[in-house]
Amino acid sequence: MSTSTIGFTVVQPGILSLLQDAGRFGQHSIGLTNGGPLDRYSFNWVNRLCGNDQNTCAIEASIGGLTLEAQIDTQIAATGGDAPLTINGSDAASWQTHSIKTGDKIALGFSQSASRHYIAVKDGFQIDPMFGSCATVAREKLGGLNGTALQAGDSLPCLARPEAGKQSFQVPASIRPDYSGDITLRVILGYQHSLFEPIQTARFFSNDFELSDKCDRMGFRLTGPDIQSGISGMLSEGICYGAIQIPADGQPIVLLNDRQTIGGYPKIGAVLSLDIPKLTQRMPGTVIRFEAISIDEAQRQLHLANYRDQHTELIPID
Amino acid sequence: MNSHAFRIEVAGENSLIIYFGDTTAPEISTQVQQASRKLTAALGDLIIDQVTSYASLLLIFDPLRADQLFIRKVINDTLASIDTASNSDSASSQTYLELPVYYSEESGPELQLISSNSGLSVDEIIALHQSLTYRVYAIGFAPGFAFLGQVDERIATPRLSTPRLKVPRGAVGIADRQTAIYPDVSPGGWNLIGLCPTRMFNPEASPTMPVSVGDEVRFKAISKDEFHALGGEIGDYQ
Questions:
Q1: SS3 state at B130
Q2: Which is nearest to B82 in space by CA: B49, B19, B36, B45?
Q3: How many CB pairs below 8 Å do chains A and B form together?
Q4: Of B64, B91, B118, which residue sits at a domain end?
Q5: Range of the domain at B12
Q6: Going from the N-terminus, what domains does chain A have, and what CATH number goes with each?
Q7: Residues 6+ apart with CB under 8 A from A283
Q8: Which of A47, A58, A116, B212 is the most buried (most CB within 10 A)?
Q9: ipTM, 2 decimals?
Q10: Among A263, A272, A299, beta carbon nearest to B68
């Protein structure tokens, strides 16, 4: 049995660095949201690189600016956005593992275009779960070290594993995401969509929207043509991940990891989870289009993505 | 319940929402609760999470282990056998709770506003708030935030046009015909009429909440001394 020890200290916390596992599930009945990584794809691969299962606690660093100092010998990996990674001041590649020695300084610069970065350690950060998860939701004061973002001076517990293998791996270049250019988000029509006038639905699916600067872990607001649902006085109801809410101002909001679990605004459907990283990695001003798909097509896409991930091997590095 | 008493809609890639009506009523809320219990038993760990609200049940399932057609079939088969005429099922897990409230202008900054809107005196408003038994229709917005309904129409008041930046823990508010207790400090736009010393959400306690959806709640006025004796503190209003 390995024992938990201080694995890393936080030298600089950066803009917003949060301990996250896959999320907190099964707790909507007491009003708790999910939390978890905004870019689930990069999160899954950062844990794969470290040989961890997909629910292992890693760091999500938004924009960047995070500096850690290692207190143990271990392996780490980084995936996600485009902030430059350095180890002791030397450039280090993302989407691969790195062997780390006690005293090493791991630093993320700042992103230009893709803003969510994931840093994992072998066996994961050893955080006591709250309600079954270590996912940090600052609004709920739950998860992480004490329900907040990382602070300078925090100690991150890890397992001491001096015998851990030193073999490094990288994610094949062909499956690393490209976070540049306009994006199209696939939308499963749902909730109140059949109550929208056909002309409103047509406007929603045939126009460009822009990502506004009002984006946080609860939801991303878009700007674009005025979409009117014609619905008022709805009872509050459960909100699923990726749901697209259209309030009276006609401007869509995509509801994300830290969303409120219930709400009373009309919704036209929900973004396919596989497409959410395209949105959450982007900066304000990104052009966004929507494409309607059925729930059956969505479920086929989820199976295909799962099959592809399970049948993609990491590439060993000499 | 006949098979037309509910309607299933897609919500997202792995979620269906079942509607039992479109009004706030105890009978509909009871159907939502019954459906939630029956489907939990029928679907087991295929369910990842669920949200029960006023008249709907959002069911989130594992899309790699079950497709939506299977889930729909289970919903239709399971809910066809619910007997709404009998209330025995709802009584099984429903609890009744009396919550103490220190009503005052010090702890309830909107009592005057509700008084001038309604033409009622502050004492009448306080009496009306205690006069009814409320049902927990939904839990959400924040951990432990229970939506209770419905208050007497005479004290129903729309949300503040400018929400407060800071509402203290325990604040008791009214929004339209709903009433609720803020479980913790947060921003909020409800009309505040008093403070409740009972913790509505405590991650260290078991259970973490004193109420669940479907439970019944009444309020009982207490003095400032009783409020403090029960551990209450008068927090900041901003």
A1: coil
A2: B36
A3: 135
A4: B91
A5: 7-91
A6: 4-167 (no CATH), 183-309 (2.40.100.10)
A7: A113, A115, A211
A8: A58
A9: 0.96
A10: A299
